[in-house]
Amino acid sequence: MATTNKRARLDPALFDLPVEKMRAGWYSDAYFNHARATLLQDGRHPHVVMQVFQKKHAWLGGMDEAIAILKLCSHGYDGLEIRALHDGDEISPYEPVMHIEGDYTTFAHLETAYLGTLARRTLITTNVVHVLQAANGKPLIFMPARFDHHRVQAGDGYAAYVAGRIVGAEIGVTSDEQASWWGGSGIGTVPHALIGAYGGDTVLAAQKFAEWAPADMNVTVLVDFENDSVNTALAVAAALGDRLWGVRLDTSESLVDRSLVGELGDFKPTGVNERLVWKTREALDAAGYERVRIVVSGGFTVDKIRQFEDAGVPVDAYGVGSSLIRGSNDFTADIVMTDGKPSAKFGRHLRDGSRLEPVE
Known about the structure:
Elements: H1 19-23, H2 30-42, E1 47-54, E2 58-59, H3 63-73, E3 81-84, E4 90-91, E5 98-103, H4 111-134, E6 140-142, H5 153-167, E7 171-173, H6 192-197, H7 202-212, E8 219-222, H8 229-240, E9 244-249, H9 274-286, E10 293-296, H10 302-310, E11 317-320, E12 331-338, E13 341-342, E14 357-358
Parallel strand pairs: 6-7, 6-11, 8-9, 9-10, 10-11
Antiparallel strand pairs: 1-5, 1-12, 2-4, 3-5, 3-14, 12-13
């Protein structure tokens, strides 16, 4: 049996839900509100079993948040019986992840909200698991915050954190909001904007950043500002010495780094490619900077990371952004029993929920 600590759920209060609006059906597809109003006018309170599932092989995210929606925003949670899987559980196509049993009118208005939550968070958790598996346990910097609305950050960051627990790999997120549900904090490198603010002088910006940075911060510097990553990496390493933790390669997919101009012909030279990483690693090692790590970012996907790992490219950590929030992992909810009798629509039925655990 799993330990209590391992199976603990997040406190519903953590999610800071707009409870009154949710309870009023503000976030619901109108037809659920209309269905509830119809039942209430008719005086009908059907006792139903609602079964929630999705159609892919995935890793579950958003369950604690979905439960919080039901706990805080239903009209009579005490009358409901809920059984559910946990965030991070590996799930199969059509496998029930949650059963909700009780008076349908008490929770009919919440279907849109809890399904949308499960869909979004499961997508993130599953995408991050795939990337971490491809990266062979190397650390991941979760970097999609700038590509989406700020209100999704906390839940997405936690979904990424759950994926890290699944794989047993280190996850870093780039904003404090993304880390807020587990008590972490955002991490970050010396950005292009700071380099620009110092007139394009990467070394000067790195020095000033290092002077400001807390002693326990791993100082990592972007080295592609002048499109001369190898030489910039060496210059930064010489200037910062032991204070430098790593350099980050982030060359645009539309550019060829200067160090590769004389080697064109037998590989794709644009962006952060295998040869650029090797040249940077070899140059740092030759100059005595073997301990300086190399972080790569810019257009990295599961497939690109897998190619790098299969080729043994000397990357120490991957920064991945927009690809982690792309795709879909849609959930469905069906009433499969009503007043003790089967009532599923054609093609659906009450599925085995033996893995589901009671929700207190």
